[in-house]
Design a protein that fits this description.
Strand content: 15-25%
Strand order of the largest sheet: 9-10-11-16-15-14-12-13
Shape: globular
Radius of gyration: 24 Å
Helix content: 25-40%
Length: 580
């Protein structure tokens, strides 16, 4: 089929203009492509145990699919995925055997989910990378450069049934297609595999920074999966920069790198270079409060690239500080379950970025968030039926065994690229602070923190990171917000911040519940410096990849280890007097 040719060209020579032409062809007939995509998914997987139980009986039309197959969450599919992980070789969810399992980040509830991963998902990943790169390269052309990529692989392990399991990012980085595609796009990673796949995150990060400095004149892109990883890397640079300069000056690797394979790989790259060391030292010395650090270190960098929406937005202020005038480009929209849309308008700032849905990588439905008058949940609509300005929850059917799978992501239709919608990510639907009739999302929390953080400016402080928790062990229950600060704030200012946080939650259910004391006074807990680094370390200890780490914005009650860490590291506590 014409519309699937794009997926079959992964290993061919990369031509950005050809990729854009194919994307334009796909999106001009997005509705038709969607129907063909669903038909192809059902033809390939109609004989699976999962689809047969719903009585499709080989039918591949949209009407039968929607009438027979129910909307599901991960919990509904968990028993089927577990069967696959345990070694069931029969066609459970897909016609072809699943050989790899992806782990979701698991940063909210403390437990990662198993998600099927197969060649088709890898193909769509490469299609997504190529599509967005083609549009980026039109605006910010790069040629024969290198990318300083802060990417890290977690350990892969074998499931009970012998399947390889690892984070989605690890499964991508370990795939041969990834390196070939990066090379074809003329942005190979400047770090060797021994660094990317190193067993110690802290040593890998140090080596990534060192590789970037060794190849500083060739680096054209600075990237990571998430903005948080880039900010974390340059916060670390502030601490270790003199050691890095010494390594380059002497051509001797720091003793902090102890992993033999990593040391061996780095020593092959490292040669004494006093002149380069002096240049880096002088660049650093000429900076004011680290502003413009990234372009100062990497004079030929064109842009900084990574996911910068949703839970990554709070890091944009610090990232812009490091970036100076260098553009921030937000990466594409997807999840451990698969990809959805590409950023084809790279000049838009991260706060306004939209994602054009690729209509041939899965079948997409959208549940309107405006409820029916009868109180029932609205019927999902197809990609060609969404309306401008409306908000929806996304439902995915893909080639890796997910059928009418609710992602719990809320998006807004901001426009159309030809006939395919351009989505703006709004929030995760299930990340709610709620005690009574109040409903506050991750975005509401972020806005409250931003408002309160402005009160810290006079004391030259900033919020390094934050999270929250609903404490229902007290009566009445109340919200707890945890802050890590860049320095020590006065009690008076932090009490004002606490009151501001409380008043900035403007949800009517919250305000009414606070006024009647059905919800107690908001509590602000200030934690020790380095607490959120411990959260990252805890995540890595559980087998997660740093590349996939997202600070949980709301820590659930089941995540007892994280709650214990946050409460133990609290050094100050304030209760709001805003409603007294």
């Amino acid at each position: 089929m014409l519309f699937f040719q794009m997926l079959e060209k992964t290993e061919m020579k990369f031509d950005p203009e050809e990729v854009i032409e194919e994307f334009e062809a796909l999106t001009k007939e997005a509705g038709k492509v969607q129907q063909e995509t669903l038909k192809k998914i059902l033809e390939e997987n109609g004989g699976t145990a999962y689809l047969q139980q719903w009585g499709l009986n080989g039918r591949t039309d949209l009407e039968s699919f929607k009438a027979c197959v129910p909307l599901v969450t991960h919990k509904d599919l968990e028993p089927y995925i577990q069967r696959i992980a345990d070694g069931d070789l029969s066609p459970v969810l897909t016609g072809k055997p699943i050989t790899t399992i992806s782990l979701s980040s698991g940063t909210t509830q403390g437990k990662p989910k198993f998600v099927p991963f197969n060649d088709e998902l890898m193909e769509s990943t490469m299609q997504m990378f190529k599509t967005s790169f083609a549009f980026r390269n039109r605006e910010f052309p790069i040629e024969n450069g290198k990318a300083l990529q802060f990417i890290y692989s977690s350990k892969q392990f074998k499931t009970k049934g012998g399947l390889a399991a690892g984070t989605a990012t690890t499964n991508v980085y370990r795939n041969a297609h990834f390196k070939k595609t990066m090379k074809a796009m003329q942005t190979p990673c400047c770090s060797p595999d021994e660094v990317i796949f190193g067993p110690d995150f802290h040593q890998s990060l140090y080596c990534h920074l060192l590789c970037g400095l060794i190849f500083r004149d060739e680096v054209q892109v600075i990237s990571s999966t998430f903005a948080h990883s880039i900010v974390h890397a340059f916060r670390t640079f502030e601490q270790v920069w003199e050691e890095l300069v010494a390594d380059i000056r002497e051509g001797v690797l720091s003793s902090r790198v102890t992993v033999p394979s990593m040391r061996s790989a780095m020593l092959k790259l490292l040669k004494p270079d006093p002149e380069q060391a002096d240049t880096i030292y002088n660049k650093r010395s000429g900076l004011s409060n680290w502003y413009g650090l990234i372009p100062g270190l990497f004079p030929n960098a064109r842009y900084i690239y990574g996911i910068m929406t949703g839970s990554m937005e709070p890091y944009l202020k610090k990232l812009r500080h490091y970036a100076g005038e260098l553009p921030l480009l937000s990466a594409d929209y997807g999840s451990s379950e698969g990809w959805i849309g590409a950023n084809v308008n790279p000049k838009l700032p991260p706060e306004l970025v939209t994602y054009a849905v690729l209509p041939n990588i899965g079948y997409f439905e959208f549940i309107p968030l405006r409820g029916n008058l009868d109180g029932l949940e609205p019927t999902p609509v197809g990609l060609a039926e969404v309306k401008l300005g409306e908000e929806y929850e996304i439902v995915v059917t893909n080639f890796a065994g997910l059928y009418r799978y609710r992602l719990s992501d809320v998006v807004k239709i901001k426009g159309f690229h030809n006939a395919t919608p351009e989505l703006q990510f709004i929030c995760r639907r299930n990340l709610l602070l709620s005690i009574n009739i109040d409903k506050n999302t991750e975005k509401d929390l972020q806005l409250s923190v931003e408002a309160a953080a402005r009160l810290l400016i006079d004391e030259k402080l900033e919020v390094v990171d934050f999270t929250s928790h609903v404490n229902v062990a007290t009566d009445p229950g109340h919200y707890v917000v945890f802050w890590e600060l860049s320095g020590e704030g006065s009690d008076e200012t932090l009490q004002e911040c606490c009151n501001c946080l409380d008043k900035s939650f403007v949800d009517a259910g919250y305000v009414g519940s606070r006024k009647t004391n059905v919800i107690g006074a908001l509590e602000l807990r200030v934690v020790k410096r380095g607490t959120f680094h411990k959260i990252l370390d805890h995540f890595v200890e559980l087998g997660g990849a740093v590349s996939q780490f997202k600070t949980p914005r709301c820590v659930g009650p089941n995540n007892s280890r994280l709650l214990q860490l946050l409460y133990y590291d609290a050094v100050k506590s304030y209760f709001s007097t805003a409603y007294c």
